[in-house]
Amino acid sequence: MKIQDFVDIIDSEFYTGVPDSLLKELCDYLAAKYGCFSKNHIIAANEGNCMGLAAGYHLATGKIPVVYMQNSGQGNSVNPIASLLNEKVYGIPCVLIVGWRGEPGMHDEPQHVFQGAITLALLETLGIDYCVIDVNVQKEELKRVYKDFSVVLSEGRQVAFVIKKGALEGSAPQDYHNGNHLFREQVLEQIVKYTGNNPIVSTTGKTSRELFEIRERNHEGHGHDFLTVGSMGHSSSIAAEVAMQKPELRVWCVDGDGALLMHMGSMAVIGKCNPRNLVHVVINNESHESVGGIGTAAGNVDLPMIARACGYEIVESVSDNSGLVAALERISKNRKLTFLEVKCQIGSRKDLGRPTRSTLENKQDFMKTLRDCK
Q1: Parallel, antiparallel, or unpaired for β 66-70 and 129-133?
Q2: In this structure, what DSSP letter does residue 82 have?
Q3: CB under 8 Å to 347, separation ≥6 — which residues?
Q4: CB 12 within 8 A of CB 66
Q5: What is the mean pLDDT of residues 244-249?
């Protein structure tokens, strides 16, 4: 279905969401028409944030908001849907657009398989009427569906379009970039040089994929790395507790700006617990690159200042290779809770692969390394 037809039928003046690769056509369309942070379109920190913004829009205007997300974000949205939007509470109507990763019968990455299997069941549990959109859905058919949905929305309820891969088309590709020069893979190569046998917990998306391939190129094992392929935003929490339980080790977390923003409250908890053996690296390219490159709010945020306010003892920010190497040299010699922001450009190799070891093997290898490390 053409993206223009899709948005014309919904006919909303406000969209908010967390980007998804299956919804790239929609994200590119909205970014081109409204930008990423405007009164008509906001890239939110997480899907719960989306629901709050949607509620605010409806309260202020009486109109219907639209929230888009990958189905992995359903979990973040459940609380505000059930306790804020639901017709038994405030009865706030909302259109959901959900990218269906891990659709049963379709090959996908392991983090999407279970979520894909329960996507429709979650909507049913929440009492949300839905329509699955595939490549065969026609404009007139969608108009009939939305006419029925309009009755549901008028009752203060929510509806959902579940989008299969390739179902939307026709937006102009957007060129997402920033003024930085380092690329993430270059940064990871330097980090690996300085971590030695220290454990690394890496965030979801291309960061973990690149780390895996760097280990392959270096003919190293993968036991020192925990690749957080799902649960976006939680790698720092995983790393913090590993550091708390293994104080004899130096633990590194390699995070992304989108992931950090998604659950930024974890920084306050980390600062309060003060695991002095934790190094929290945030590769900040101001984008959700792994799902298309659309921007995050990180370009307007002083992440080092936030880290200091949360209690990180050593805080640095770098934007070139010489600065990165110098910072890693200093960090490798200290034993204090550390935060390092590395400002990067958007982009990755076109031939970037995916980990060839299973998630269960990754867990087992990493746990064995933690047991054996002294």
Answers
A1: unpaired
A2: I
A3: 183, 289
A4: yes
A5: 96
